[in-house]
Amino acid sequence: METTWAHRLRETGLRVTRPRLSVLDVLSAHPHADADTIVTGARAQHPTLSPQTVYGVLDALVSVGLARRIEPAGAPALFELRVGDNHHHLVCRSCGVVADVDCAVGAAPCLSPSDAAGFVVDEAEVVFWGLCRACQQPAAAESVQFEAHEIRGGASA
Amino acid sequence: METTWAHRLRETGLRVTRPRLSVLDVLSAHPHADADTIVTGARAQHPTLSPQTVYGVLDALVSVGLARRIEPAGAPALFELRVGDNHHHLVCRSCGVVADVDCAVGAAPCLSPSDAAGFVVDEAEVVFWGLCRACQQPAAAESVQFEAHEIRGGASA
DNA sequence: ACCCTTGTTTTGAACTAGTCAACTTAAGGA
DNA sequence: TCCTTAAGTTGACTAGTTCAAAACAAGGGT
């Protein structure tokens, strides 16, 4: 495809900079990465990159809709590039791996709570908590727990 | 009713202490209170109560199932006493007020993602984001924003 | 009614994720 | 190439929460 990240950035009015391209690269490789993972990963291409810059880049990407921020309870925020398709997430209680899952009940019925109590709802956020396949094997669970932290986000659907 | 908090605590094997009763009282009055609100509220009955103690009490209550912890993205954790009925939450983007909402699609279908990707799911957490009735009136929005912080949790269904 | 065990509270420090502000750098249109 | 302004850098700082050791008290046993 000819739609490069540089193009996508310019389309949204953002300048094309090395930190931004690095962060986008890391996010392509780690579909659910936290800020720390992104800093570490992006330093492969840009060794002096600071965490604050990454936070700035992520805020910019999220605000123009190129990235989405998810915050599973009890864990640092994760970022993903899959946007605009109203999908949800499976989170493993044991190792923290995140997988994508399409909306459970069709198109976007998520947006219709049974009783909105006067609220105007614009988004439904769904997190399914459970155990990933690897963590269901008790013996393997411990070692997997450490591996999974390294490859956080490697188990996307 | 004759099921006092003291009873409920003993039933679960927890000792009955003043900090615990105070916290339970505050939670009864504020159905979605954060730790800080609880500390402040509980000090009405127990002025020397420390935040750490409240965190300890809340952990104890959550671990025996007397309370539930919810963590809306970007906000401190909230605690509620309504447990065991798989209900969800409406959160106002403007003022942070939280309201309860029953499971959108019947009994517990929330537990069935369309494709579980090998996960064994044990809970579905749903957060509906939007604007509460008060924050839908632009003119009033600003002043409401401050009020609502004080009465956080006052808008339960 | 008292004592003893063990769970709780207290006290104080520490930690993590993330934010803020002032300054420097560089993207990209003129 | 210059200039404007967005973006990156640097460093201090905060909120929310957790950890650890010592003091305390709930409630069962005697």
TrEMBL record, chains A, B:
The keyword Metal-binding applies. Keywords: Cytoplasm, DNA-binding, Iron, Metal-binding, Repressor, Transcription, Transcription regulation, Zinc. GO terms for cellular component: cytoplasm. Zn(2+) binds at C92, C95, C132, C135. GO terms for molecular function: DNA-binding transcription factor activity; transcription cis-regulatory region binding; zinc ion binding. One of its GO terms (biological process) is regulation of secondary metabolite biosynthetic process. This is Fur family transcriptional regulator, ferric uptake regulator. It comes from Blastococcus aurantiacus.
